[in-house]
Design brief:
The complex is a heterodimer of chains A (about 300) and B (about 250).
Chain A: E1 2-10, E2 15-24, E3 29-33, H1 40-47, E4 55-60, E5 63-64, H2 69-75, E6 76-79, H3 91-101, H4 106-119, H5 135-147, E7 153-157, H6 165-178, E8 183-188, H7 191-197, E9 200-205, E10 208-213, H8 215-222, E11 226-233, H9 236-244, E12 249-256, E13 262-268, H10 274-284, E14 287-293, H11 298-311
Chain B: H1 2-17, H2 19-44, H3 49-58, H4 60-74, H5 76-84, H6 86-91, H7 97-129, H8 140-166, H9 171-194, H10 199-208, H11 210-219, H12 224-247
Helix pairs in contact in B: 1-7, 2-3, 2-4, 2-7, 3-8, 3-11, 4-8, 4-9, 7-8, 7-12, 8-9, 8-11, 8-12, 9-10
Classes of the chains: A alpha/beta (about 300), B mainly alpha (about 250).
């Protein structure tokens, strides 16, 4: 659906995007992550044909953006970063205006607008003035606008920024339902959002793509070993000595808990080594009340990837 | 074409939704009223009716007001779109930049023409009140060329204001920039045309002084060189605005 190859964008003072390449397949939901100022918005603006690039090429649905910008724009529904709307217009008026700009046929316009209003939960507020709507509703108007011409590809630049948790959940659910019909590229720096919605993650840092994979694969690549936590009733020094002496296991941390139990953090070659630890506890006669694999959060992974590259 | 119509409709709607339109209308209509009273007083002092018709479109109250009023109409055009971020939303649809610039230009021009409509009522008024023995009144030729002059001057002023608005995201800056250029050149050219000693300077002044042109048009003098000057200069500024919008994005 999207094919970006070797794209570079220079601003007068700095290099915003540095020779990036990536692809997004039809029907995928891809999360586009990166710290502030990493080049997310610039990339999305080039993708939608708003900003010209200095070098490289972008193809959307098989059309080269510098040769057929109109064809590309027709196929993209774009929600810009700040969700720009005309505050003085009414919701219906605005959607009608946008639909006509996007070449939705006059005869199909009303039906199409009703459909996207229904999809985005805007049926009740059609007659309201946009400037008087809450941020959450405005965001939905923006989304409805990006959907109104039935695009193949949705490019959403931080669709949940500035919303309250309840609205975030609503927008997220909406995006998930949209995923059935559209390819989605979604930028955000809210990591839970990506975890909740996206199938694949692209991480950009300082203008370069530093990772592109599914969430599990990213974790796996970064964290070669698993961390296992266990709580046993045993004597500390002996327990550490026993555990560490086993093949493929190493105690990273240990401490005596207030209620007399011993807490151990064990580095293991794989998470399945919990079985060995259980057997050890049984054979040593330790009472065991906790044995779990530590989950890596996407946040850890994200911080690690962006920091590692930044330090190079 | 349908995109252009949608853009134009939107432009007019936004214009008439904004309070600034009504403020501008209030002041300009007050000035046209003042102009009419002044014109009546000229008649009372024995001025001929033909002169009075001329003053309808070229009264100094109005000619001096235009370089102030027009930037107030045009300041919003692009500056607001930049400020709201809606320019990005527009330019990522199939809208082409020249289409956008033209729709804004014609939107502003239509509003400008609305501003001048009360003048027609005053003409009607004059016509009704004219003594029966006066023949050849109103002078339709002079009225038409006066209206043409008003529209031509408006086109150039609006194009300049629109260009200034395309440069910035701040409406105040756009208004003051437009005002500085229009009023500065208005006064400068007027000085050159009427008081400069050097004949070369005088001729240049006469080519460019919209004050002098509006007087001529109101008298029924249509000079094709002047018509071409206004149209080409307006087109040039619109073209410059297209280039600015195309290149200045981030």
């Amino acid at each position: 659906m999207i094919k970006v190859s070797g794209v570079t964008k220079k601003y007068p003072a700095r290099l915003a995007v540095d020779d990036i390449s990536f692809e997004v397949g039809r029907g995928e939901i891809v999360g586009f992550l990166g710290p502030n100022g990493a080049g997310k918005t610039t990339t999305m603006r080039m993708l939608t044909g708003y900003l010209p690039m200095n070098s490289g090429s972008i193809e959307v649905a098989g059309f080269d953006i510098s040769k057929h910008p109109q064809e590309v724009r027709r196929r993209i529904g774009y929600l810009p970063e700040s969700c720009p709307l005309y505050p003085e217009m009414r919701v219906d008026e605005y959607l009608k205006f946008r639909a006509s700009l996007k070449g939705v046929k006059a005869s199909a316009r009303r039906a199409k607008i009703n459909e996207v209003k229904e999809q985005c939960g805007l049926t009740e507020v059609g007659k309201r003035i946009i400037g008087q709507l809450s941020k959450g509703y405005r965001q939905r108007v923006g989304l409805a606008d990006s959907l109104v011409h039935d695009p193949d590809l949705l490019v959403l630049d931080e669709p949940t920024v500035g919303l309250d948790p309840f609205q975030i959940r609503q927008v997220r659910e909406l995006i998930t339902t949209l995923a059935k019909r559209h390819t989605i590229l979604l930028s955000t720096h809210i990591l839970q959002e990506v975890e909740a919605i996206c199938e694949r993650i692209l991480i950009i840092n300082e203008g370069k793509i530093v990772a592109s994979d599914t969430e599990e694969n990213l974790h796996r690549k970064l964290h070669a070993c698993s961390i296992i936590e266990m709580e046993v009733m045993a004597e500390q020094a002996a327990a550490i000595q026993k555990v560490s002496s086993m093949e493929g296991l190493d105690v990273r941390n240990a401490s005596e808990l207030a209620d007399g139990w011993l807490w151990l953090e064990v580095e293991a070659d794989s998470a399945s080594m919990r079985v060995e630890l259980f057997n050890l506890a049984v054979s040593e006669g330790w009472a065991l009340r906790e044995l779990s694999e530590q989950q890596h959060s996407l946040e850890d992974t994200f911080v690690q990837i962006t920091r590692k590259k930044g330090a190079e | 074409m349908s995109v252009f119509i949608s853009l134009l409709k939107k432009e007019l709607r936004t214009c008439f939704y904004s309070p600034i339109a009504y403020v501008v209308m209030f002041f300009f209509w007050a000035l046209t009223g003042g102009n009419f009273i002044w014109l009546l007083s000229q008649l009372a002092h024995g001025e001929s009716l033909t002169i009075a018709t001329q003053l309808m479109f070229s009264g100094p109250l109005l000619t001096f007001a235009l370089p102030v009023i027009v930037p107030l109409i045009t300041m919003r055009l692009f500056a607001e779109e930049r400020k709201l971020g809606t320019l990005e939303a527009l330019l990522t649809t199939s809208v082409r930049v020249p289409e956008l610039v033209l729709s804004k230009f014609f939107g502003a021009l239509i509003f400008y023409i609305v501003l001048w409509l009360p003048a027609l009522i005053y003409v009607l008024f004059q016509y009704r009140l004219a003594p029966a023995e006066v023949s050849g009144f109103p002078d339709m030729g002079a009225l038409q060329s006066g209206a043409l002059g008003v529209i031509l001057v408006g086109m150039l002023y609006i194009a300049v204001g629109l260009f200034m608005s395309s440069l910035t995201s701040n409406q105040i800056v756009a208004a003051i920039g437009g005002f500085a250029i229009l009023f500065g050149s208005f006064l400068g050219m007027m000085y050159m045309a009427y008081t400069a000693q050097n004949p070369a300077v005088r001729i240049v002044g006469q080519y460019y002084s919209s004050f002098a042109h509006m007087m001529d048009f109101a008298r029924g003098v249509v000079d094709s060189r002047i018509v071409i000057m206004y149209v080409t200069h307006a087109v040039w500024f619109l073209f410059a605005a297209v280039r600015v919008v195309e290149s200045k994005r981030a």
